Amino acid sequence: MFKRLFTLGLFVCIGLMSLALFPTPAAAQDQGHFTYVSFWTVPRSEWEAFEKQQKEMAGTMQKLVADGTIIAWGTDEARVHQENGYNHSDFFTATSRANLLKALEIIWANATNAAFVATTRHSDVFLNTIAHGGK
Length: 135
Prior knowledge:
Blueprint: H1 2-21, H2 26-29, E1 33-41, H3 47-56, H4 58-66, E2 72-77, E3 88-94, H5 97-108, H6 114-117, E4 121-129
Antiparallel strand pairs: 1-3, 1-4, 2-3
């Protein structure tokens, strides 16, 4: 009898431990987020104009957040950088690929001004985070 109870208890413990050690897959926790990041190499003489243009885009970005197209956005500048490295960046994040592409089209419509044209180098990345906010 003791052997049966011990065996049953062992199986119950193994079952509970397996639930704790093997959590649900990340895809089941969250559908993920999509992020678009642009890196820019802006000549120091053009920093002021470039940063002014980024600030002018703030209104557009806030509207995109307000209508739910994107959930976050931001800009960054690297005062300490390499000579040929990127010194400015901006990003925005959406909960779907369609919303990210919609926001990108709106932003591209304003990207032909002199501040963006004056950059010497530019690179973009498109990220899909599948375990965003997972536990």
